[in-house]
Structure formats: structure tokens, C-alpha cells
């Protein structure tokens, strides 16, 4: 299995100290190379789930196994390194660093994994997303669609086992939406990368063989029970 | 991609703010370097390098510092003189390799440059250890021949053959001597007070009308000076008696009082005698013994020129230097604070950037290091530029400073302070960068990404 969640609970603390339950997942899994769309209403905990899977947030309880490693049990430094090496991230708002060129943004992803950068591979990724000639351009000089393509290239820079995409096509026009979606899915399929893509768009979700509705397996009230027990 | 290159991109991203903050460090360091170069030049001008003599002998009543200021820096004439005979006596001492008489008094009518009466021996000796005078022209032969320093030549626009008159006393005097002096040689620049001095034949100095001391006064002074050496006193007084007799004879014959005749040595006086003793390596105690001997018996004193100058340096110039260093240090400190403010203020805008880097796998230590590296690049980079600009400014200003003050700047001379400057800047960078870096370290990734 590439991704397995067991009894994952996550609550946020309200300013008055009360627990706000967000996640209560008994079991969820994705096989290696599997691609799934994750849908759900706003505020149902999709982004929190991605953050928990990537180790950005720690669950209150439960196991989050990525490629057989329970990342919730790893010390923070090791978890950061694990995230850099094993998990790719595509954000809704691209999150490219404005002071870096397209190529540098891709290289930056490599920097934090092993400290070494593979310029040739980074350039091949940019070529793959159709930005070979734009590799020395900064994000401000690129269109929204191009920026997201850079973001896709960056997410694959460390040859991850798992790619998490948080509404990657939400901010792009329909033409780019299809291009980016195909790019992500095709590349993941080619490299056997497990893909979990959060989306609100029905037309995007429809392209996936597997579509998971978060509300179907997420029961935050169980998280409250767990926390207050 | 190193942390420094990531930091550098962040600095470039905030170009104007980064440039201004680094510039403040640049200016502070530049000022400090300029202060150090100038104080180094002043220090050199007041150090052993300015004079190649071991002892300066003068009258006891003058005091050590006035004697050195008079004989080396030609700042003010000594209040009391020594008998010329005493100079001759010192010259005969076996420990003395060279004794040069030095009569310092009047100034040139134009430019008010100090006039020094001496002998050719002064120019045969080094002006600083290992440095010979380079003179264009000929030796002093006639009574009213003069050798002028480079600065005198430049300021007064004098050259070989130029003629000039001198003014009695100092610049405030209005009495101009009738004697006309002729420039027979010009000294090339030495970077010492010699550049601002007019040298004349010491015999000519005595021959200037009004420079002779009344014989009765000379007699009283000799009695006082040679009180414990009756044999030498007798020789001196015999000369005075002979001169008096000659004067009375001439007066009876109706000659002019200013009529030139040979002045007996006993009637001449010198401001100081510059002494070079035998080589220190072979006779290390010559100067010390001679100095202590001179204190006994005669009303003379021998001064190691460095001692009072060092005291002056420490008491006055040392404090000025310290004050300026403290001031420039404060400027650098304030620059450090501005770097802190700049980076700290940028942290709110960069929260998301830090969140992205952390999401990409950057460790807390890495983002801490990136922010700290920014502080180091701004502080040390700004300092390096300031160091280069400071020395560059010294290179550009050196000819002007030399022309205006006679001070020889060595623009690339490195003061020992400069070696600690960069470690201090590094420490300052760490100090001002640590709080913003800690903010980066503590950034909550999920919060930063959702902001």
C-alpha cells in the first residue's frame, strides 16, 4: 500500500479552548500507483487531510502510513526530510516563490531532499510540462496556467511515491484545466506515483476511476469522542 | 542550491529595502576605514619613522614636548637655547656618530614656513631610518642659500633661483629682515615636516641682522650653563672678551653696529642638537648613558624623540581616534538595527514563502539558516563594500590630502582594527538576524500556507 490511514483523529482548538473536530477517519487507503479524486463540501476537512497525510499537521491519534512508514511517529526533522523525498505537493494557488525562476523553483524542491540538485532532470520536467523555453522566467512573467505547470514540475522533482494535489485546476481556465489534469495524471501513471487529488470540479472528478467523498469516510464526531474520552 | 543562494534571491526580491540597509552598513564601515587610514597616517607621521635621530638635545628649561615639537615638527621655537659650543662638545663625544645643530626661529615672509638654520650634515643623514633625502639642486655654500621642502616649493611656487625674505619671529610679526635668500635646492616630498621647512646655512642664520644676542647677555647665560665646568667656561668667556674688545674697537672707529664680522662660536646659540649615536645593535646603551650624563652638569637635556610624541599621541590623538572609532562603531550598530528592522518587517510578508519551503521539505533549521544568511549577507556584504569604498576613497583622496596637509596617506594600509571588523560584523549579523530567524523557525506551516 502507498497510503494507509488508521483511526486518524484531528481536532483544532477554538480560542475558548474547546475542541473543534475536523477529521475522524477509521480507515482509508490507496494502493501504489492508484489515482483518486477526493471531493467534499467546503470546510469538510479536505485540506486538513492532505496536511495530515503530508506530515505538515500531526493527527491527535492514529496512524498515517506513507510507503509503509508511519510519518506521525517520525521526529520532525526526519518527517520534513521524508516529506521532501516521498511526497509531492501541488497547491491550489501554485505557491511558487516569486524571486525564483521556473527552473529555480523546481530545483528548490530538490534542495530540501538530499541537498543535491539535478539540473538536467529539472529541465526535463519543465520540458515535459511544455515550459522549456520559459525556464528562466519568474512567476510574475508567466500566465496562471504556466505557473501551475511549474508547480506540477516542482512536485515531481524528487520522484515522489505520493502526490497530493489540492484543487490544482481551480484557478486556471478550462483549456489549461484539461492540460494540467492530463499532465498530472499521465505523469503519475507513467512513474507509478500514487495520486490523491482534492477537487470541487465535477468534470475533473469524473475523469477518475476512483472518486472518494470525504464525508463518506470522515466522521469528525468520532474524533470528539476520542479526544474527550 | 545553497542556503546562501536562496537567501541572496530573497534579498534581491526586496531590492530597494535590502540595498538601503546594506548601504547603511557600507557607509558606517567606509567611515571607519577612512578614520583608520587617516589615523594610521597621523600615527606614522608622529612615529619613529619621522626622524632618524636617537636623541634631541635641548635646554632643560624648555620641557621635553616643546623641544620635540620644535626640533622635529617645527611647531614652535624653544624658549631657551643651547650654546653653540655645547654642540661642538657633543660632536666630539666618541659615542656620537652625528651631531647636527638646529637653529629654529623665523618664518618666510610668504606662506610663513618655518626657517631652520643647520649644516649640510642634516641632509647627509637619513630623514627617516633608511630613507635618504633626494634633493634637486646644489649644496648650501653661501650665507643666504636656502634649501626648501617640496610643500614650500609648491605652495609658494618657488623653484631654484627663487629669492625670498624672512620675517622675524612668527607669522604675527611685522618685522621683515632685509637679507635676501636664494633657493639653491628643492627637497623631494618626504611626507615629513621637512616638506614644510626652509633650511638655510646656520652661519647665514647667525648673520641675519638682529639674530645676534648682546654679548653681556651671552656671557651671563654661559656662566649659568657652564657653572659646573670652569675649564670650558673659561674658553667661552675668553672668546666673549675678545669679541667685546673687537666691538669696542670698531665702535671707537665709528663702524656701523650691524657691520658683519665673524661671530665667535661662544656667542652663537642653537635651538637643539640632533644626535645619532653608534649603532644600537653594537652599543645598545649609548643613547641611554648619554642621555643620563647630559642631565648632570649642564643645563641640558636629551630626549628620545619618541617618548613625548607617544605621550602626545596617547593623550590627545589616541583619544580622538578612539572617539571617532566609537562614533563609527555606533553608526555600524545603528545599521545593524536597521537590518534587523528590515528583515523583521519582511517576515510578515514572507510567512507564506517560509510555509511553502517547509511544505517542500525544508527543515526548521533550514529556514532559520536562510534568514540568518540574509542578515549575514547584508551585514558582511555591506561591510565588505564599505571596506573597499573606504580604501578606494583613501586612494582617491590621498593626493589631495597630501597636497593640503603634507600627510602621506597609505590607502591600502590595513589597521589591526580591520582584522576584527569582519568578525564583529558577523557577530552583529547573527545578533540582529537571530530574532527574525527564530520567527521563521517557529512558523506554523499549515497556518502560513492558508494565510
Commentary on this structure:
The complex is a heterodimer of chains A (229) and B (451). Chain A is an alpha/beta fold and 229 residues long. Chain A has helices spanning 46-54, 76-86, 102-114, 119-128, 144-155, 174-191, 202-205, 214-217, 220-228, and strands at 3-13, 19-30, 35-39, 61-66, 69-70, 87-90, 162-166, 194-198, 210-213. In chain A, the strands form two sheets. A five-stranded parallel β-sheet of chain A has the order 6-7-8-3-9, with helices on both faces. In chain A, helix 2 (76-86) packs across helix 3 (102-114), helix 3 (102-114) packs across helix 4 and helix 4 (119-128) crosses helix 5 (144-155). Chain A starts with a strand and ends with a helix. The model of chain A has no long low-confidence stretch (mean pLDDT 88). By secondary structure, chain B is α+β, with helices and mostly antiparallel strands. Chain B has helices at residues 3-13, 15-45, 64-71, 84-91, 121-124, 150-156, 202-207, 215-225, 230-253, 286-295, 306-349, 351-359, 364-405, 416-442, 445-450; strands spanning 55-59, 82-83, 96-108, 114-118, 126-128, 131-132, 135-137, 145-148, 163-164, 166-167, 181-187, 198-201, 269-270, 272-277, 300-303. In chain B, strand 3 and strand 4 (114-118) form a beta hairpin. Chain B is elongated, with a radius of gyration of 32 Å. The chains are: A alpha/beta (229), B alpha+beta (451).
Mean of residue pLDDT values of chain B: 85
Would you tell me the structural class of the helices and strands of chain A? alpha/beta
Distance between the termini of chain B: 27 Å
* Secondary-structure class of chain B: alpha+beta
Oligomer: heterodimer
Strand order of the largest sheet of chain A: 6-7-8-3-9
Shape of chain A: globular
**How confident overall, as mean pLDDT of chain A?**
88
Total strands of chain B: 15
Radius of gyration of chain B: 32 Å
Strand fraction of chain A equals 15-25%
User: Helix tally of chain B?
Assistant: 15
Order of helices and strands of chain B: HHEHEHEEHEEEEHEEEEHHHEEHEHHHHH
Poorly predicted spans of chain A: none
Task: Report helical residue fraction of chain A.
Answer: 25-40%
